[in-house]
Amino acid sequence: MKIVIGADHAGFALKETLKALLQAANHDVIDVGAYEYIKTDDYPDSSAAVARAVVAGEAPKGILVCGSGVGASIAANKIAGARACLCHDIYSATQGVEHDDMNILCLGGSIVGENLAWKLVEGFLSAEFLPEPRFQRRLDKVIALESGGSA
Questions:
Q1: Helix (H, G, I), strand (E, B) or coil at 95
Q2: Residue 40 DSSP symbol
Q3: 66: which strand partners?
Q4: Which residues make beta-bridge pairs with 108?
């Protein structure tokens, strides 16, 4: 699978680890930065880059890492079509895709260790949206909200 990945300084080390694990698992990884540790970089830059790439169809799913994962999630969700969620448990990383069509997994590089992060990524990547009427109805309402409509 093609995956787009990005991080700020606080998520840089975990991004690099996940990138290597993804490549070892034969995924095609698009790295949108940071490309080196720069203490003064800002999470909205990498968040927007990942979100725009996913929405544009460059990859079906993306992964973002910042210190807590919160800022990356907030920033990515400002891009129409991005459904970025902070997940630090395997159930949410999988269920977020199955029920909510989450397309970007956000992680806190200061919160989760490498082993748990990899399990979260595996769950996220293996999950697919379940096109059950209740899930589709809810997703349609989210899409309507995004375009200025009402739920």
A1: helix
A2: T
A3: 108
A4: 66
Residue 60: which domain range? 2-146
Question: Is position 36 within any domain?
Answer: yes
Give me the mean pLDDT over the 42-71 stretch: 98
Note the pLDDT tens digit of each residue in 9-25.
999 999 999 999 999 99
Q: Which active-site residues does the annotation give?
A: 66, 99
Handedness of CA 68, 86, 9, 14 (dihedral sign): positive
Asked if residue 33 has pLDDT above 90, the reply is: yes
**CATH label of the domain that carries residue 116:** 3.40.1400.10
Cα 76 from Cα 79, distance rounded (Å): 6
**69, amino acid identity:** G
Instruction: Confirm if 2 and 25 have CB atoms less than 8 A apart.
Output: no
Tens of pLDDT, residue by residue over 66-82, are 999 999 999 999 999 99
Here the tokens at position 34 are: 């940071």
